[in-house]
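Materials and Methods. Structural model of Phosphate transporter. The 509-residue sequence of Phosphate transporter from Smittium megazygosporum was retrieved and submitted for structure prediction as follows.
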Amino acid sequence: MHPHMYTQFLVLGLIFAFADAYGIGANDVSNSFATSVSSGALTLAQACCIAIVTEFCGAFFLGAKTADTVRSKIISVSLFDNNPALLMLGMFTALVGSSIFVIFATSRGWPVSTTHSITGAVAGMGIAAFGGNAVVWGWKGLAKIIVSWFLSPVVAGIVASVLFLLTRFLVLESKDSFKRGLYAVPVFFFLTIWINIAFILNNGLPGVKNKMPFAKTLWIGAVAGAGVALFSYVFYSNWLRRRILEKEDLKWYHVFVTPFLPKQPLVPEEPAETTSDKVSGEVNLPLNNSDLGNQQANQSMFGKAKGFLLKGVNKDVRNLNNPKLADIHARAKKFDSDTENLFQFVQVLSACAASFAHGSNDVANAVGPLTTIYQVWQSGVVPGAKASVTPWILAYCAVALDIGLITYGYHIMRSLGNNITWTTPSRGFCAELGTSLTVVTASKIGLPVSTTHCITGAMVGVGLCNGDVRAVNWKMFAICFFSWVITLPFAGLVSGLLFAFVAYAPKSL
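The predicted structure was written out as tokens:
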């Protein structure tokens, strides 16, 4: 094959890689912020704005590592050495099979594994091309990935449960829970910063060839976490005490000067709106018919455009008033609201960490196949297993992640969060940190785990900590499990059938 042949596969690959990354953003990115939105720590619009930055940075700077696993360790790409164009076709059909299922599942509100989807699609294509021997079934290939699907929700559930039980018995149920919470917040800051700084350094910084020893990354992460924890104890905890407990009218920027700030006025109570308030205000001069028509037309056009662009973020996804969930929510133990409020910002920080980890891990599901298509098109030969990932492909797919979340992610946020179990800032934080720990550890060993499985397992684990199995929506969990089971065979079947239809079509005489 000569370089730059079969450009049609590159063009189609770009289209369906964008579609696959779009589906990943709508489905998997929503997992990172579902608990923060459900607990009320963030609005849906705020979550989307934060995710735009965290997902892009995680995908662009650290997404190349797991792309290698998806690209070259599911099937034996060396089988395509004599026909590189066939590998281009195969990776294109894999993107088609994966993107179709993920977007369909998102429209149904099914939180599926996009890792399952692309893995099944690549395996299905490989079987259609060369039979079952084309798939790397052993521990170095598919077996390791399949095992992670079952381990990740269990491990994330256990970690999240341990974190929440410690938080519950040491803080939430203590006699002076608010005071205990003020001491606990810096500890949680330390854990979050430590884990994620160590993860970033261990994966390697952009432009740095030699990685730091793992022990050194842990030390650097610990020092950074200790610095943030110290700042939190001296400044942020003090600000929380005065803002929440003493009701002082403090702004966010007062955090940096709180110990030196004299006592501030109390937060003013909002007066009830009266009839005179409603009718008072600026008096506008009447418009003539022409001006009125133009204004209404402009407002209508602007309103329609705004409504279309912001449709995905102007949704109620918290399920607080759903009568079908009332009994499940009632079985969850409620704690002091002021103490729960202490965890809001820490939960936002943990959600950002989970989102960053997700971007670094799951963007590979779209980047891996597209990178293979591009490298074959560029060189005319099958790329080596360690071929580098082109930065513009990482950026291209990272943008698609963000667009998918903003426009379509509300479907999954509505299915998770309070739909699994009652979610509060403390519960959400423990679920998110448990997920981050699991995903970060998996990325450390190059294992592409499912963040969907991790966050779902973590939320179920936290829900069971209520001591009542009926505090968990098992029907929703069953739907999640069903969607996990059908993902791999469905995507594999679509990809394999499409590959066979194109590759084995009758040739002209």
